[in-house]
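Lab notes, practical 5.
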Amino acid sequence: MNNLTLRLDGPDLRRIADDVLVMMLPPNLRRRWMARMGRMVIAQAKRNVAEQKTVDGSPMTPRKDRTNREKMLTGLVKSSWIGVKLPSDDEAEVGFFRNAGIVANKHQLGGRAVGATYMAIDYPGVFDLAKIPADLKGRRFTLPDGRQGCSANHAAMLLRLRYVPLNLRAGLPSGGAAAIRYLMERVGRRQALFLIGRGAEKAGKLKRPDNTPARPFLGIDDEQKLAMGDELMNGIYDRFKAKSHAALLK
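Output from the prediction step:
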């Protein structure tokens, strides 16, 4: 018959000693401790954004249109929008200033999770903008009278609004790509903008849920928290002299 064995692990005495030491620090050094921890968390957030990765190291969800625009969230982690507050000697809060906090929260948790919404045109028709042919994107035709034709996006909006000029409705092709080209070759830019404005006014607006995906970039895991705490502990006696903590960032 096998013996029942129960293994007991002793406490991490070094960790307990460090915690006691921190509690024994005078208030000014405890505040400096917490301020440094907060700035290290901000440094990690900046690195996550620069590398377009989330807190757990996975890639951020790309933009829906997959364009090659500037990296996401770079403006949010500038010093003018993010900082550290010290509610007490033993607390630090890393947060965003003004409306940047609303945007950051939406990306951190996801639009639906925070109940974000936006007002959108209540289109009576449906047209998937992603299906606009690549050869028509950014292209403009010259109309017979010399005017510049509307863009592919303008043509798609006219189709979604069901606000195509009366004189063109009879010859409008049924296919999406063909219909877009048909309008681009016959509707001027200024006329399209006027019709879109009238069509949008007639359609009205409605509140839609914001489907921004979660891209958590602010935060550190337990391993980082312990490593950062240990590094700061080593600097207690030299009064937290400035030094680089880049090696602690993941």
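Observations recorded by the TA: The two ends are 49 Å apart (CA to CA). The longest strand covers residues 82-88.
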